[in-house]
Amino acid sequence: MSGGPRPGPRAAAAMALVPVKRRRTAAAAGPVLPEAAEPGRFPGVVLCLVERGLGARRRALLAGRARAAGFCLHGPGSAAVTHAVAEQCSADEALAWLARRRGSTPGDRTETSTGLALLDLSWLLESLDAGRPLDIEPRHRLPVSGVTPSKEPDPAVLPAYGCQRRTPLAHHNAMLTEALETLARDAAFSGDETRSLAFTRAASALKALPRRLGSLRDLAALPGVGKHCRRVIQEVLEDGSSAEVEAVRRSERYRTMQLFTGIFGVGTRTAASWYQEGLRTLADLRATGPRLSRQQQAGLQYWEDLATPVTLAEAEAIRELVQAEAQRILPDATVTLVGGFRRGKPMGHDVDLLLSHPEEGREQALLGPLVASLEQQGLLLYQQRQPNTFGQEPSSSSMDQFERCFAIARLALPGAGDPGAWRATRVDLVVAPRSQFAFALLGWTGSRHFERELRRFAGRQRGLALSSHGLYDPQREMFLPATTEEEIFQLLGLDYVAPTERNA
Ligand code: CTP
Ligand code: MN
Ligand code: MN
C-alpha cells in the first residue's frame, strides 16, 4: 500500500464494491518466474515482486518495466533478494508468502535479521519514475500486521470540497486523472453534465493526493469517488490503461467532438449538431461556410495558431503590450495576468487579462478606447466586445457580467528569424471596478473546477452566494466587501489557498 492506513471498515466496504474477477484469475495463476541472469544497473539492489496482493498479470507487467529500467529481479527462492515489493499486504504476510515459495517457514528470515526490505509498491513505482532505486523512507515499508503506521498528511482527512484542498499543478496521479478526465469530457460531449462532474470530482481529488495512489484501498480516503470511477482506477492501476477509456479515445465521435469544441466559438451543442450532420473535419466545416458565426470563422481561419499552446513568455508580452496601451489611455490602469498562467501553468490556450483602475468608475472609460487603439495598430485579428450587465439583468449562469472583449491578437514573434513573423493568440480582456476586483481576480484565476467548488462551498456550507462580482449574504441582503483574495477566503471561513494550489 502506498501510505494509506490499514483498511478500516470504510475501506473494506469500498473494496467490496470492486469487481473481484481480475483478482481471482491472478491468484489462480502462480508460476515462479525464472530468475533474471543479468546483474542489473543497480548493484546491491535485487528485487523480488511478491505476487500476493499484486496479482500475476500486474506482477509480470511491473517486472517487465523494472527490468527495462535496469533493475535486477530474482524469484522468491533467491537468497540474494534485497527488496521485496508487495501491495495490499502486511510485512508478515509478505514474509509468509516468500517463505512458502522457498519451502521454509516464515521464521527463517525476517526483515531486520537479513536486511531484506519489505516494501510497498509505491517505492517501486516512484523508483521507476525516478529511473533509479530510491532511498527507502518509512512510508515505503509494509506495515507490520495489525499496526497502523502513522503517516501524514492522512488521506483519510482529504476534505470534501476542492476549495478546501491544495492542488498543485504537478501531482502524482496523472495516469488516473487523464483517464477520468477523458470520461468527464466524453460525458460532457453527450450533454450529461452530472456524470461529467462525477468524473471531474474524482480526478480533482486524486490531484490533491500527496502521493501516487498505490491501491484501491487508498480510495476509501478520497471523497466523491463512485463505483464507475473506482472500476476505471482499478483497471489503470492493474493494466496501465482502461479499456473503456481507450475505446472512448479511439472513437470517431470523441475525436471529432474534441476537434470541434477546440475551435474558438464552438460549444458542445454546436459541435454535437455538426457531428450529427456527418461533419468530421475542419475541411468539412470550411465547406459549410455561411452557417458559421463570425467568431467561428475567425476560429477556423486561425485554427492552427490557436491550437498551438501560448507560452508564459508570450502571455507576458501580451500583458505588457496591453498594459502600455491601457496606461496611455488611463495612466493608473492595472492589467493583471489571470487564468491558468496565474496558477503557474507554463502554457495555456489563451491569455486572460483582468483590467481595472484604482478609482471606482474610471475603469468604464478603458476598454472601448483600448480595443479601438489596438485595432488601429493592426494588433487585433478579431474582437467581440460585451457591455457590463451587472445589476441590469438577473445573472443567468455562473458566467459573470463584466464588460469584456474576446479577441484574437496578432502577436509579433521577434525571435523567430523572420522579422515579420507573428502568431494569432486568443486573448480575453475583462474589466472589473475596484470594489469587485478581488472577486474578479479570484473568479478569473480558476481552475474552473476550483471556482465551481468555491461557489458550492459558499452556498451549501455558508448560505452565501459567491460570484466574480461579490459575496452576497441573502439573510442580511447585502454584499460582503473584500479587497483581497485572502479576505474572501476569510469571509468564507476557508484556509487561504494560493493561486498555484488552485489547480483542482
Ligand atoms: N472564466 C469565467 N467566465 C468565462 C470564461 C472564463 O469566469 N466566460 C474564468 C474561469 O472560471 C476560469 C478562468 O476564467 O477559471 C480562465 O478560464 P480559461 O481561460 O478558460 O481557462 P484557464 O484555466 O486559463 O486554462 P487555459 O490555460 O486553457 O486557458
Ligand atoms: Mn486561460
Ligand atoms: Mn480564457
From TrEMBL:
UniProt EC number: 2.7.7.7
CDD domains given in the database record: NT_POLXc (cd00141)
Any one Pfam family match given in the protein's UniProt record, by short name: DNA_pol_B_palm
BRCT domain span: 37-141
Main location: nucleus
Enzyme class label: transferase
Family matches, as SUPFAM superfamilies: DNA polymerase beta, N-terminal domain-like, Nucleotidyltransferase, PsbU/PolX domain-like
Keyword terms: Magnesium, Metal-binding, Nucleotidyltransferase, Nucleus, Transferase
Subcellular location: Nucleus
Stored PROSITE patterns: BRCT (PS50172), DNA_POLYMERASE_X (PS00522)
Cofactors demanded by this protein: Mg(2+)
UniProt superkingdom: Eukaryota
Catalytic activity: DNA(n) + a 2'-deoxyribonucleoside 5'-triphosphate = DNA(n+1) + diphosphate
PANTHER family to which the protein is assigned, alphabetical: DNA POLYMERASE TYPE-X FAMILY MEMBER, DNA-DIRECTED DNA_RNA POLYMERASE MU
Similarity comment text for this entry: Belongs to the DNA polymerase type-X family.
Reported function: Gap-filling polymerase involved in repair of DNA double-strand breaks by non-homologous end joining (NHEJ).
Protein name according to UniProt: DNA-directed DNA/RNA polymerase mu
Originating gene: POLM
